[in-house]
Amino acid sequence: MRQSHPILSLFSHKNIKKSNKDGERVQNILKKGQKKLVPSERTKAPSLCALCRGTKFLCGKTRCPVIVRFHSKVKVKPLVNTLRLEGVSPPSVFVGRIGYPKVSIGPMIPPVMGDTSLIDTPELWLDKSIDDIVDFRTQLVRGKYTVNVTDVESSNRIVEFTRDLALSKNSVFAEALFEKKPYGRVAFYDEIQPHGPSAPLKTLDITNPKYEQHIEKAFYDTDLKAKDAVLDIYQSGTRVSKIQRAFSVGAFGVKKYRRFVPTRWSITAVDSLIGQELMKKTKTYPSINEFRVYYLNQFDNRWVVLMTPTAWQYELVEAWYPKTTWNPYGGGISIFNSYEFYDGRTTYAEIGGCYYAARLAVNEWLNRERRQAGVVVLREAHPGYIMPIGVWNVRESIRTALTKEHQKFDTLQEALIHVSTVMDIPLQRWIKNSAVLKNQLYQKRLEDFVNPYEH
Question: What is the pLDDT of residue 75?
Fold first, then answer.
């Protein structure tokens, strides 16, 4: 008779309710040699950075984020210490959200000539280091010009040229005159790619922008709904980042409803819209016939995509170690989740834009395979992930993970045992913080009551 694996005891409902202390006991039966769950605590001081000065790594990170930012800022500062800036925009624009419905719009221009398209094409960044991304993104100087979000049809040259940049397919020469010299810290966000200093715009001029063909067609079709425009352009093969950029300047939709959309909102809106449409098709396909586990380690983020042979359901569970971006001072690992079952969700995901970026990526894969599945995405953000670099990281990491060779299993228990060998956090904590895993492990289904001898 086949012996059960000791980890299978984790899957009893009784064990799931045990304390964190019991979880430490359970962890001891995991794969020999597994790393410690939580880095050792260090004494906290009011001025930790002042004591450390980037040499002692008192924060627990392997590299000092302050130093990384500083070096990038030092490189670009002499180049932007001027009221007039000339350079080739990737092209790139930014629409702020502070003060909505009056927001700051404008170009992002590096003091660099030549082809700068890489600087605003996150689909090409996954093989870069965090330092590389910070280096080329902090070159981007953000010009700011305040408008009402309804002013998309304004004849103002700054508004027109900002829109032209957003719709362009290639790098565009730009010249900006600022009201004062660019200033400010290097900006890092969870949803948006980093960028450099900023300054109020006085004038803006650009040279010969050429619109991306499919985006141009949607822009001039003022009777086409924004949703239909986004889907048509996506199906043409246009990169998601280009669609998000055009969406932010109100390039799509019925004319009277067009609006500027803050950049961080436009990123999530496009990811959500495309993912929702793909999900409808996913639900029409037959389910996969085994349990699958995909794995990727990128930027010290460990990703697992677990697929189950069930109807569509989806969850993203993120675990942030101490000393990481969203758990800088915690004494333990912080775990968050957002999920949906077959009928979807009606409220905005607690995790935010990462949820919709990952959902888009998994539905792209399922549509290509013409299959349906339940999907649980697990993320461990370790201290090496020293700063946020944008929600694109989630979408592109999941896309890449799904191109890797996967492991197949006959049961969910076996699949989760494999997960425990590539992730540090014990299975008990993943299950405790996952609605989809608990549902699949403990919810009785119709087939559980079918007598196999009746057929």
Answer: 59
Domain ends where: 212, 245, 264?
A: 212
Tens of pLDDT, residue by residue over 132-154, are 888 888 889 999 999 999 999 99
Q: How confident is the model at residue 39 (pLDDT cuts 50, 70, 90)?
A: very low
**Residue 327's pLDDT is what?**
78
For residue 326, being part of any structural domain is answered with yes
Residue 197 lies in a domain: yes
- Show the DSSP H helices in 64-208 as ranges: 65-76, 130-137, 157-167
36: tokens are 């410690």
Provide the residue range defining the domain that includes 335.
22-37+283-443
Q: Do 287 and 430 have their domain in common?
A: yes
3-state secondary structure of 257: helix
Hey, is 252 helix, strand or coil?
coil
Residue 395: half-sphere exposure toward Cβ, Cα within 13 Å:
29
DSSP letters for 398-435: HHHHTTS--EEESSHHHHHHHHHHH-SS-HHHHHHT-H
Looking at residue 1, its pLDDT comes to: 44
- CA separation (Å) from 454 to 23, 43, 446, 449? 42, 65, 15, 11
- Tell me, yes or no, whether 85 and 170 share the same domain: yes
Q: Are strands 291-298 and 334-340 parallel, antiparallel or unpaired?
A: unpaired
How many structural domains comprise the chain?
3
Q: Which helix (H) or strand (E) holds 380?
A: strand 374-381
CA angle 111, 115, 120 (to 5 degrees): 75
Over residues 53-93, the pLDDT tens digits come to: 445 555 655 566 555 555 555 556 666 778 999 999 999 99
Residue 101's nearest CA partner among 52, 152, 26, 155 is: 152
CB-CB contact of 234 with 243 (8 Å): yes
Residue 445 has pLDDT above 90, yes or no: no
pLDDT of residue 61: 58
Task: Output b/e per residue, 328-347; b: 16+ Cβ within 10 A.
Answer: eeeeebebbbbbbeeeeeee
Residue 117: closest CA among 205, 245, 264, 234: 245
Distance CA 122, CA 129 (A): 12
Q: Is the pLDDT of residue 190 over 80?
A: no
Backbone φ and ψ of 161, nearest 5°: -70, -35
Average pLDDT, the chain: 84
In terms of domains, do 236 and 184 share one?
A: no
**Residue 57 vs residues 66, 143, 174: alpha-carbon distances, Å:** 11, 35, 41
pTM for the full predicted model: 0.82
Token pair in block for residue 67: 């130093």
